[in-house]
Design brief:
heterodimer, A: 716 residues, alpha+beta, Calcium-transporting ATPase, cytoplasmic transduction domain A, Rossmann fold, 4 domains, 7-stranded mixed sheet, 6-stranded antiparallel sheet, 22 strands, elongated, B: 554 residues, mainly alpha, 19 helices, 3% strand
Chain lengths: 716, 554
Amino acid sequence: MKTDLTHKEHEEPGMPTATPTQAPHQDAPTGHSTAQGRVGGGLFDPRQLLRSLPDAFRKLDPRVMVKAPVMFVVEVGSVVTTVLAVKDPGDWFGWTIAVWLWLTVVFANLAEAVAEGRGKAQADTLRKAKTDTVARRLTPDGGEERVPGTELRVGDLVVCEAGDVIPGDGDVAEGVASVDESAITGESAPVIRESGGDRSAVTGGTRVLSDRIVIKITTKPGETFIDRMINLVEGAARQKTPNEIALNILLASLTIVFLLAVVTLQPFAVYAGAEQSLIVLTALVVCLIPTTIGALLSAIGIAGMDRLVQRNVLAMSGRAVEAAGDVSTLLLDKTGTITLGNRQAAEFVPVKGVTAAEVAEAARLSSLADETPEGRSVVALANEEYGYGLSEGQAGAPAGAEWIAFTAQTRMSGVDIEGRKVRKGATGSVIAWVQERGGTVAEDARQLTDAIAQAGGTPLLVAVEDADGPRVLGVIHLKDVVKEGMRERFEELRRMGIKTVMITGDNPLTAKAIADEAGVDDFLAEATPEDKMALIKREQAGGKLVAMTGDGTNDAPALAQADVGVAMNTGTSAAKEAGNMVDLDSDPTKLIEIVEIGKQLLITRGALTTFSIANDVAKYFAIIPAMFAVAYPSLDKLNIMGLASPQSAILSAVVFNALIIIALVPLALKGVRYRPTSADTMLRRNLGVYGLGGLIAPFIGIKLIDLLLSTIPGIG
Amino acid sequence: MSPELAGALQLLALIAALALSYRPLGDYMARVYSSERHLRLERWMYKAIGAHPDVQMRWPAYLRGILAFSAASLLFLYGLQRLQHGLPGSLGFRAIDPDQAFNTAASFVANTNWQSYYGEQAMGHAVQTAGLAVQNFVSAAVGMAVAVALVRGFARSRTGELGNFWADLVRGTVRVLLPIAVVGAMVLVACGAIQNFAGIHEVGRFTGGTQDWNGGAVASQEVIKELGTNGGGYFNANSAHPFENPNGVSNLFEIFLILLIPTALTRTFGRMVGNLRQGYAILATMATIWVTFTVLMMWTEFAHHGPALEAAGGAMEGKETRFGIGASSIFAVTTTLTSTGAVDSFHSSYTGFGGGITMLGMMLGEIAPGGVGSGLYGMLIMAIIAVFIAGLMVGRTPEYLGKKIGTREIKLAACYILITPALVLCFTAAAMALPTPGDSMTNSGAHGFSEILYAYTSGANNNGSAFAGLNADTQWFNTTIGLVMLLGRFLPMVFVLALAGSLAEQRPVPSTAGTLRTEKPLFTGLLVGTIMIITGLTYFPALALGPMAEGLAA
């Protein structure tokens, strides 16, 4: 019996195979509720701040800082003010400004260090799995040699037996084994890995629990999946994403504009008779340049990747996470994503002159030997509706029965008891069986099967040969069961402007029925890998970004073509290589969450940028009157916050500017609240919170800090 | 009727007139720039300059066309002034000095029309009509061409082609500016503006003495001065002079002419990108700023405190009694929110806040509605910045009109918004730091500083109006302002065209429910906010030390 479910989808309708034992995602059960899964934040523990402090100081190295131009300017400002303070050690104001500027830089580094720190723990766990292994390599002459895992080359064949740690990434070339992949997925239930088919990939660092397999190594040591995972979660492989680069450019140009505004201010001030100290000018620059977003930008990106990691999804590039936010077409496999993995018996329909109970009895009897989920569902339905004993299995059946198990060749299962032969199976096969025996097929059997197929179901015929001769009794209606909550989910996606396309091997009629029931926008029936590829290219030609999941080798080209290609960890290495994300839980529904995480990342970035820029207004109102009210007393009217003194006004602005970074670290790490709604609603809400909030918050914050500061003697 | 009511009614009349002309003119311009036909007159012109109007240009070629044309114009205008003494109709005026000739040539080629000369005492008929008036047409047409190229960048996909500069230049002049100018000139003549080639002659007797004045093709130059948002007056007093702007009707008509093309171009934009509502959103942004500024200006000018001002019913100093405070305020805001720079009253005499409003209008980049063409492309750049910052908040990487705003696009837009503030602030700082430029100030204190800040703001933004106290005819100001005008005009064009090229190459992203709706009022609000914060805040310290210090003191 093959464990390849995806092929089932390509069978003709009306000839259900009911072969598989496993749905693709079932060998790695997910720990997440898929229907109601929401993008929430990770937890934020204030102690993380303290733990990351040493890293934050290490990042003060100018060679590191220069990569974040905004914060580099602040660091230069800190050095300048420190030098000035050292020259004039009695100037408490200079010292205080210097200290707070340094704190601003440290806080920014802290944000990044905390974000990185969350990946470190995960990396450590992974490292434990990556202990140096000794591989049993097969030599060309059929012998075996022991070599360190680090010396394996692509194409080597290695043997693993129960208890062995798999030395490197590869495909099973021979045999079948149960493998403990908990080191990577965190899921303790073992999974089956076998040669051929779509479940052949094994990962270095995982452990064989039973049996013996021969593995063909497909990755160089040091570039294995686990190595890449470690790099990813640690952020070592992190590269700035396109949008992050673009935002950095804009921030840098705003920094230049504000630098110019302040540098050129001195001649104006001199003319006005209010020459400013370099310390005050530096403080002004730091307050005006977009430090808040400059400080948090990198942390937001790392945290976004981390949110994926927490959902057991590895994004091979940050670009893919950003692309996820832009996706406008989702290709979803029907089975496992939209419907439960297996069809289930929903109804027994008799032909004329037969009762439903008779059909149920025969169907149950013929399915007792069918261990497929479909077969079991027939028994379960019959038991439920017609009250057969639950414990009654094959054992409880009359003695002398000859059981006929389901095979992919016969497409039928059944039993021969006391001269009575009962069969159930694919329409074609059962009709052939009846006709072979000289029986006739009831006229309405055809109509019944057609009606079921048109309604999106799968008909199985039940036939019997007894004293009355061979004949068809009725039809079992197998139904695809749409997962709960999917319709609402697709509704949300539609509101977000995302089109869902269901991919299925079913015929168009069946596909349409399920598509209607699930509420997807479109479907691709009788889909071949080529059809999928063509669909992706067609969508992309229209400027749309496409996301899909896949696991088979024949999915690989489509995965590579899609803008977001999520490979199932249970899939083949080819699929994992082609996609730009890997879902360790192998849960295709997660694609929707991935899109939401991508969007949340972008929203957080935009919200904090808006907040940061809107903050400037209040800072001007604090600092400008403080600088020039002496020269032009009228400018004191700009001091609408009523700040106590010029020094405390400037200091309050600088302190607010530093503290707001720390205050926003949790938001940067968790991401802003995200609900799937239309762009309009989302923009209105976020503009209100972060735009207006960004205008107003600093007025309040600066005033509060000023109130505190003015209680210190000598400032107020 | 109270002056306040008169002002409000004029404002309403103006808006009504603009609303009436918006659709026909906007659609007409869209047809002009999309048409594949050439008029016979145009064919002759292409032949004369050796241009092939049907060849599609990529952005570098388009830019080369602009720079070559403008460089030739610059040299021609410079030569014309330097040789004035030998030209017919020179009215006996001598050749213009090199630094002033450079300044004036740069000024008219850059659509700025900053004037460090007195028209009636320096420029004869030949230079005025064959030189300056011609530039009034073509420099405006260049601005419109760049705007149209950017719009094509949004409208086209998977091509780098932005149209043909020569065709756009000629069509803008022949089919848009010229016909309106002809009609407009007749209206102005009907109002009483002069149109002749008379020499210097006695025009009247005043308090015992006589006054001599020259004639000229004033109405025809006046109309294009406003229509092309140029602003260079035939006479020094500009639109305050009765020969240029005889009465209240002509005054309102001139304001109408200034706003006519820049507002209608938003319709052209909407038409060409295939979504009229996008054009309305841009227009709404422009209108919001323009109306707010006008109302604030009227308020500060009418309600200013002080015994003399209250006796006069408001700040009448520097304003013509035949226009009054209301019409003067509308004119002042309009001229500084566009790149016009024509004045019917003297900005230096406005209240502190009033002067500040004129400066802020220019500092915003003159985009509400801005100069012909330059207003539209400046506003579209700000829309890109706004989309980039806030667009992320809808959870998609930023896009505007279906085009992604990626690294390259934002780099070009960022360079664009850097140029003018850099020019204004650096040159003002240099002028304040150096010992001699300050001698040109008439006033001391905050107002003196405003004179210099205004001069460079006006130059870099290609406005051309002045805070009149400053004596700008010095080598320093002629040279630096000349440079600032050229850099402030042509450097941004480089980035706009590069951006247009980059946008045109993109494949458009289809709009979905997840797309930021840039045609909604919410976006208009967002855009206004972005403009005020990003460009406005840059100048906050400088404004504080000039107009704010002055305005708050009163």
